[in-house]
Amino acid sequence: MRIALTIAGSDSGGGAGIQADLKTFQRFGVFGTSAITAVTAQNTRGVRQWEPVSPDLVRAQIDAVADDLAPAAVKTGMIGNRAVAITVAAAIRDHSLRNYVLDPVMVATSGDKLLEDDAIEVIRNQLVPLASLVTPNLHEAEILVGERLEDEDAIAHAAARIVDDMGAAAVLIKGGHFP
Questions:
Q1: Domains in the chain: how many in total?
Q2: Which of 39, 34, 52, 53 is nearest to 11 (CA)?
Q3: CA-CA distance, 121 to 25, in Å (whole number)?
Q4: CATH label of the domain that carries residue 125
Q5: For 135-158, how does the pLDDT look when each residue is reduced to its tens digit (9 = 90+)?
Q6: CA separation, residue 87 to residues 79, 91, 106, 161, 169 (Å)
Q7: Count of CA atoms in the C-beta half-sphere (13 A) of 19
Q8: I need a labelling partner for 103 at 20 to 30 A (CA). Which of 6, 16, 48, 132 fits?
């Protein structure tokens, strides 16, 4: 049986986060496991509120899955804050989790902020280097590299920086429109 672990926020509306990841895993015949990093109150119109899960509980969830089920792949989504980001990076390293896909969720589709500013550095310096694939959208890529991406050349340069300077194995910058 193929097993994957998603480490992300819980979306009460069911359209994103852990709920969407588990639905996707099931659709492709993958047994989905999870570690919840934050609980959100959201629907199709926006995020009303969110709170992070304690780093200790996030770590306990990852340990419980990794110690028993040996996931063949790991995906992170909403991390929420610096303490949780540090905890997730340590757990991925400590368990030698492989095939890690980092979706650096920072802002909801509605525009609501889902990541505290002080976590960005941890994502850049600790999570990106562990990733087999980083999948930022255009806005998240701008935040990761710290510059505006206004054309295809700028996007290609940003992708190269995420791989060459930050240490990701690969990057796929998705979505967004040029001004």
A1: 1
A2: 39
A3: 29
A4: 3.40.1190.20
A5: 999 999 999 999 999 999 999 999
A6: 10, 6, 17, 25, 21
A7: 12
A8: 48
